[in-house]
Design goal:
Length: 172
């Protein structure tokens, strides 16, 4: 009986296949940054985001390589990045944090002031992904340094700071 139990255990272990390989994230490489254009294909709730949602986008394309962003509704900025690690093609969960200028921004619908905003997203190891922010509302447009960060399991993997500036009129 003991021999039958041992044989059954060996067969069960062999049929289970090789053990799953753990994900290893070495780093994130920022490959492009600046002002982008894209199409919105939906929204997803994000309770820790200043707007309460994040936009799902497609057809992302760079318009201008820069870290200086005009303070205008409709402006979209950010960076493309690649997660470097193994196994290639594995899906990883990321936390994306946006740090606002020191005065923060206030959502008039909730009355809540935010110094940062965050949401969760995913990326595929070895595939270039977009991380950005778009000014959808007047109340979001705040001049100063905006920092976009990407985190994984408590470790900051990438950050890029953009200076949002008001346009200066040359008319007198």
């Amino acid at each position: 009986m003991l021999r039958l139990l041992a044989s059954s255990l060996v067969l069960l272990l062999l049929s289970a296949g090789p053990p799953a390989r753990a994900q290893q994230i070495d780093r994130v490489e920022i490959v492009e940054w600046g002002i982008f254009q894209h199409e919105q294909m939906g929204v997803t709730p994000a309770p820790l985001a200043a707007t309460g949602k994040t936009n799902l986008v497609t057809n992302v394309r760079i318009q201008q390589v820069t870290t200086t962003i005009p303070a205008l509704v409709g402006m979209k900025f950010g960076f493309r990045f690649t997660v470097v690690g193994s196994p290639a093609g594995a899906l990883v969960n990321l936390k994306c944090i946006t740090r606002f200028p020191s005065q923060g921004i206030t959502n008039p619908n909730t009355g809540k002031r935010f110094s940062s905003s965050e949401f969760h997203s995913s990326a595929v190891i070895g595939v270039t992904t977009y991380r950005g922010y778009g000014f959808d509302y007047d109340w979001e447009v705040e001049p100063g340094p905006w920092t976009l960060e990407v985190w994984h399991e408590g470790r900051k993997l990438a950050e890029k700071t953009f200076m949002v500036t008001r346009l200066v009129s040359s008319a007198e």
